[in-house]
Amino acid sequence: MADDKDVRRRNIGNGDVGNGVGISPFIEAKYYYADRGSTSPNNSSDRFMQREINLQRIRDKAEKLKEEVLSNLETQLRDVIDDFVQEIEMIERHGHAAEGQTPRATTYKKGELADKQYIPRASVLTELLEINHIRTIYHIFVAILIVFSLNTMVYDFLDKGTIITNFDLISWTFGNFPTVMWLWFCMLMSTTVLVYPVFNYWASNRRLGRVYWLDYVWLAIYIMYQTVFLVVPIKVLHDNKLPPASSVVIATEQTRMMMKVHAFIRENVPRAINFKKAKCKKFVLTGLMMRRLFVVQTSPNISTFCLLQLLYIEIIIPRSNHPVKWSYVFSNFAQVLACLFYMYYIFERFCVPVFNNFGVEPFSARRLILCVFGSMLPGTLVLFIGFFSILHSWLNAFAEMLRFADRLFYKDWWNSSNFSSYYRTWNVVVHDWLYTYIYKDIYKLAPTANRAAAMGSVFLLSALFHEYILAVSFGFCYPVLFLMFAGIGFGFIFLPNKGAPRSGNVFMWVALFIGTGLLMCLYSLEWYARQNCAPTSDSAIIDFLVPRSWTCDHISQSAIMTTG
């Protein structure tokens, strides 16, 4: 009997539960003394309860520390494993193991940031789609596209008496395409005919040694070129009144070429300045230097450059040895085309009917809230489809044609447990460019311990160009994306990541759903306000900067009353 009581006391002391209900320290102390047939003294009881309370606090702190350590350890371990796998792939690629050699690791000075390493590897979805379970999810999206097509056909048949869909929205949004191609070709030729020859002339004829005043003149010429390259296409877009999709093509290609040119200049200027005459009689851009602009593995001629400048921003990427799989290329382009029709159905069924009467019918705050929540699912679908069509299918198609081996254009951003990881993995191509040519350069100029200045500059520049593309494409400035990106989105990266990864991932997805819903709703309202409402000012600049949707309902009601 005594042994049973000892066991019960020991179980209670360890926090065990007998009947599903935990026993408090007070009950434990009471039981301890009652078992010995005596009353519990106040002092002894207080000391025992205080001891148990302190032990429980220690347990709580230990559990909290355990969660923090495991969370940080998981992130660090994942990075270490990724680096290890990359190193193994490099060993297999270059045959170091067969030769009994060890690849030399790049050493960096204290405070110096690491460089991007390129190795042959497939895109994440390319590998995941080989798994049957993931392939089934892909099939589900294909089935949804088929259902959308059938829905449109049935709707047209019942409403118009025909099943022939003319896709007016697609033909309109990509309108005036000859002008788009002509403008794109002019931008491409400016980088081909001007940038490399002019840079080569400066590098070959400058005075050797340190920077002097004439180099700053050439720097001013480079800044002027980038400014003209930024302004002229905007004027052409405005004069020709290009529709949204055609404008998106020009704005994104303009941004890409500006980034490419800056990467070429930034990589080769230090080589030209540090050039030693004893090594060569004249400075000549080598194949390694030219690859920053020309996207090839050997020194190309102009025709090769014109063909191969189609794709990358950051360009030192290994080439694959296998022949081009044209079936893979065509399948990726087919996926891009399917994604285009996917977006058409989303906008045609979920956006146009909801927003096209804005400014014509009364619009209340209640309806605005409903529109925001109603736009979350379509907006997130557009996010998925845009990611899959551009960052996966489009880039992989060109990578296969040009035989580029490093196809890590994105990482598993959908598994991110915080926004800091999401921003690094969503678009690796742009992230690597920003890291290499903006973050690292500003980090060198800022105090060593102050990475926030470099990080803030990267976010500000990225948010500005995202908003620039939307403003140029839509024909109005409504900086919702800028505020969400440079404001709330920038603040999200400082949120503590002390909880479980699952809860962090859920929070990220909830934020993405809300963000895409707000973007689709507010930009759609402003677009149709521009179609249905009077300008806010006689000044074109003020009308461009001030959203019409803020005053559209008042103007439309006034117009109705005046007409009546």
Q: DSSP strand (E) fraction?
A: under 5%
How would you spell out the order of helices and strands?
HHHHHHHHHHHHHHHHHHHHHH
* Count of alpha/pi helices: 22
Distance between the termini: 97 Å
Give the helix proportion (percent range).
over 70%
Number of strands: 0
SS-based class: mainly alpha
Shape: globular
Protein name: O-acyltransferase
Coiled coil: 48-79
Keywords: Acyltransferase, Coiled coil, Endoplasmic reticulum, Membrane, Transferase, Transmembrane, Transmembrane helix
Family: Belongs to the membrane-bound acyltransferase family. Sterol o-acyltransferase subfamily.
Quickly list its features:
564 residues, mainly alpha, globular
Write the layout of secondary structure elements.
Elements: H1 2-13, H2 25-34, H3 42-94, H4 96-99, H5 124-128, H6 132-160, H7 168-173, H8 177-205, H9 213-240, H10 244-273, H11 287-294, H12 302-308, H13 326-355, H14 365-374, H15 376-402, H16 419-426, H17 428-445, H18 451-474, H19 480-492, H20 501-532, H21 540-545, H22 552-563
Helix pairs in contact: 2-3, 6-13, 8-9, 8-10, 9-10, 10-11, 10-18, 13-15, 14-20, 15-20, 17-18, 18-19
Family: Belongs to the membrane-bound acyltransferase family. Sterol o-acyltransferase subfamily.
GO molecular function: O-acyltransferase activity
Coiled coil: 48-79
